[in-house]
Structure formats: structure tokens, C-alpha cells
Amino acid sequence: MDSAGSDTIPTTTVVPPPRVSGIPGAGIPGAEEVLQSWQTDRSRAPIAIKVVIAGGFGVGKTTFVGAVSEITPLQTEALMTRASEDIDDLTATPDKLTTTVAMDFGRITLENDLVLYLFGTPGQHRFWFMWDDLMRGAIGAVVMADTRRLEDSFPALDYFESLGLPYVVAVNHFEGAPLYRPEDMRNALSVADGVPVVHMDARRRITVVDALLALVRHAVDLAPE
Amino acid sequence: MTAGSGRQPGRVRPYSLTGGRTRSGHVLLVETFVASLEPPDGRFDPAPGGPGARMLPEIRAIIELCRRMRSVAEVSAMLKIPLGVVRVLLSDLADQGKIRVYGTGRGPGQPDRALLERVLSGLRRL
Questions:
Q1: B86: domain range?
Q2: How high is the ipTM of this complex?
Q3: For chain B: N or C, fewer Cβ within 10 A?
Q4: What are the protein's UniProt keywords (chain A) (predicted)?
């Protein structure tokens, strides 16, 4: 299950749960991270690249990030002014001019000079202002969907489709939720034929890596020769 | 902003950002790497009672944290300073020569095919 970590702050304060993995140092909140050698070499920095994980509340974004990150997922905040809240319901109190949006992110050192960041971001329309900034230079996005609440992923799908950015749909399978065929999911979500739709379990690292691979392959296909 | 000058910190002055670029021209995306520059004379030593103690706590904390290579997002998350504010503070610190902005090590815009292939290879090894 997702934590509330990648949605509006007032709901709850989240401590990332300990996770079971083979990654040293992972899952111990506040523990000193395992140092990568690039972190101590200030003569040069690695290449930084990022992927955005988008989807509705509780769809599993934080779990996704935590399943592959070499660090316990961190949470960063952006301030949002009322002017940005145009479509969705206003959760801010009338006298509150800004509200805080939280993003969870993780990191994978792919090579000593190549570091991949994963940013989980809430999927509602009112957060689009953040996505423009976040998507700058990104490989693309993994849009997560929950078969019980497909409509929660529509805003993110609309956004990435309209901008022509590489994205894949990752259907996160929750226990007890119906399992649909990929082509049925594609129809239900009105996803274009060329866009990969993958089934996954955000708790299982291997399926998370597969979803990322599907995105990067798709981005390669779309990249100019 | 000058440390110890009594001026209010960047967190209360108006700021604007366009596409991760601060007013002074630093591109500070969430994944942009930054690190502290060692002062030749240890002026920024944050030890209590030292000269660094006159700095704003946030500034001191950033300089201390960035003794290792950090991304902008990591600085924001680890010090619990909102992203927009941390960008302004980092931009100021870069102007003052206290931190170095390394960038992302690649050109602007979407990653090119060669880089994507490297990412693919890296993911396959996980």
C-alpha cells in the first residue's frame, strides 16, 4: 500500500516503513546512508537523470520508489499558492494562502558516474504546475493505475499524452482486486496503442525494475536517431 | 544576503523561478548536484563559537550537508526546507562562492539516445 507521503501534507506525517530488501542500510529511517563513491568526490559530479512516478492517492508510488531505491525514500516539499488550485477541491482553509505538496523520491546509482532519481508525485490536476518543472529533462513517467480506481490515473495520463512525453502505464495489482488483461486495461484507460501497459506489484522489486525498463525502452523508441 | 549582516534571509523575500532557473541564472533542477567549496582558511567552519556560527542556521546546515555531493532534492528533504526556498538559498550560496553547482552533467532537454541506452544497461544489472 501507498503511504500518504506523496500527497498533501495536512493528511498525515509519514515515516517510511522499514522494508525488506537486500540493499544495505535501506529501511532504517535516519540511519546513515551507505556511501556511494561519487558522493565523496567533489572534483566531479555524476550524470543525474530522473523518472517521474505519477498516480492517484494510495496507488503505490511510495512503495514503487522504495522497492528499488538505494536510500530510504526521502520526502521533499513544494509550496503551492491558491492560484494553482483551479480545478480540484480546495483542501486549504480559507485563510491559508499556500499549502504544501510533498514528493517522495529515491535514488539508484546505476554506474559510478550515472545516478537515476525516481520522483513520486501526486496525480491530481492541481499539481500540474509541479509536473512542468519536474518533467524538465526527465526520461519520462510511469503512470500508476489501480484497477479499483482507474479514474484516479486519468489526469496524469491526459497530462503526459498532451505533452507528448514518454510514459508507460503500470497497473499495480492489489490483492483482491480484479486482474484484467492488458488490452482491456488499455481500452479502459484509452491509452494509445504505442504506449506500453505493464502489470506489476509495487512491493516486488523485480516488477518495479521491469516497469522502469519498459519506460526507458519506450523512451529509446521515441528518441530521435 | 551576507552572513551576519542582519538582513532577513531569503526565505522571506519574494522570489521567482522559471524552469528551475533562479534569478541569478543557476539551473537548479531537483536532480542537479551541488557541493560545498572548501574555504581556504576555514572561514565557514560551522563549529559553535566559530565564525560560521554567525550564519543563519539553514545556511550553515546546507554547507555542512553539502560536504558530500548532494542533489537539490536531497538538500530540501534532509533539511526539511521547501524546494523553492532551497533553490534560492543554494543560488545565493553559489553566488557567494560557498557552494558549487555541478549541474546534471548533460545538456538541457530530454536525454539523448546514447544516455538512455546507458540507463537501460544499468537497470538490467539491478
A1: 33-124
A2: 0.79
A3: C
A4: GTP-binding, Hydrolase, Nucleotide-binding
Does some domain include residue A16?
Answer: no
Residue B53 located in a structural domain = yes
Per residue in B66-112, pLDDT tens?
999 999 999 999 999 988 889 999 999 999 999 999 988 888 788 99
Inside any domain, residue B60: yes
Interface check for A204 against chain B (CB to CB < 8 A): the answer is no
- Indicate which CATH number applies to the domain containing A109: 3.40.50.300
Residue A23, in any domain of the structure:
no
pTM: 0.80
Q: Cβ of B80 and A217 within 8 Å?
A: no
For the CA atoms of A35, B72, A215, A212, the dihedral, rounded to the nearest 10 degrees, stands at 30
Looking at the 3D structure of chain B, how many domains does it have? 1
Residue A76, SS3 per DSSP: strand
**B114 in contact with A at a CB cutoff of 8 Å?**
no
Q: Does B63 fall in a domain? A: yes
Q: Domain count of chain A?
A: 1
Tell me how many residue pairs between chain A and chain B have CB atoms under 8 A apart. 144
- Give residues 133 to 152 of A whose Cβ lies within 8 Å of B: 133-134, 136-139
Task: Tell me which residue of A66, A20, A87, A31 sits closest to A208, measured CA to CA.
Answer: A66
| 8 Å CB contact of A48 and B31 | yes
Query: For A17-45, what is each residue's pLDDT tens digit?
Result: 444 444 443 443 444 568 899 999 989 99
For residue A50, which residues of chain B lie inside 8 Å, CB to CB?
30-31
